[in-house]
Specification:
Length: 259
């Protein structure tokens, strides 16, 4: 696929995806969604990629859905509002994925990163669940992930008020995981992603799967059963053998070695 609304590049083992409509504050379109889905899938299939980072071009991260292309198109009967991929499943089954929120992230600009593994926020970032302000409701399982990140009361206030949250308040509430100076936002996200991406790929995927399936599971016996099933698989992997061998040989493990 030829990308028109995003950029994709490799930075020392990290796939850097940049939303690239700065003149529209990187407002989301169906085309952008399709390109992101393709880029993430491509990164997941590339053995040179250990993790993924997403950021925005210019002064914004993503100003939500493009009002003209998406919402007016829907009203006129010619728009395409839905993603062509199962976004939440794609992200949760992906290699580690980190958001570098360099500016405003509102509407779908926020909901699409809620299932990410880590959200790094610039001090200039702003967050908003503006759906109620435009007469619609949240999507992309955001009413689940927002509660997980912020708690029920804070998530309710954010969604029902449609208020814009500054970066420091969002981070204090648990919405973002790291708050950094604007000039450090992308480098921090790349560092976080690179650190996770150096770990063994199968185990990274399995841990993400366990976190996804067990986060709201109330049956602790089932939680442990899922963990033990994956643990037995992990014990038999070359990655586990390499970790043990590296420890005994007093050297860093190389999870990409073939022997």
């Amino acid at each position: 696929m030829e990308y028109e609304q995003i950029r994709s590049e490799l930075r020392e083992g990290v796939a850097l995806l940049t939303l690239d409509r700065p003149e529209r504050m990187n407002a989301w379109t169906a085309r952008m969604g399709a390109e992101l889905g393709h880029a993430i899938t491509t990164a997941n299939e590339d053995p040179e990629v250990g993790a993924i980072v997403m950021t925005g071009a210019g002064r914004g991260f993503c100003a939500g859905a493009d009002m003209e292309d998406t919402f007016q198109g829907q009203i006129d009967g010619g728009g395409e509002a839905a993603l062509t991929v199962d976004w939440v499943r794609l992200v949760r089954e992906s290699k580690p994925i980190v958001a570098a929120v360099n500016g405003a992230a509102v509407g779908v600009g926020l909901t699409m990163i809620l299932p990410f593994d880590v959200i790094v926020a610039s001090e200039r970032a702003r967050f908003g669940m503006f759906f109620v302000k435009v007469g619609v409701v949240p999507e992309l399982a955001s009413t689940h992930f927002l509660v997980q990140r912020m708690g029920f009361g804070r998530a309710s206030e954010m969604c029902l008020s449609g208020r814009l949250y500054p970066a420091d308040e969002a981070c204090a509430a648990g919405l973002a995981d790291r708050l950094v100076a604007p000039e450090a936002c992308l480098d921090t996200a790349l560092e976080v992603a690179r650190g996770m991406g150096k770990n063994p790929p199968p185990q990274l995927r399995w841990i993400k799967e366990l976190l996804t399936r067990n986060a709201c599971e109330t049956d602790l016996g089932l939680v442990q059963k899922r963990e033990m099933e994956r643990l037995r698989e992990a014990y038999a992997t070359p990655e586990h053998r390499e970790a043990v061998r590296a420890f005994l040989e007093k050297r860093p493990p190389d999870f990409r070695r073939k022997d």
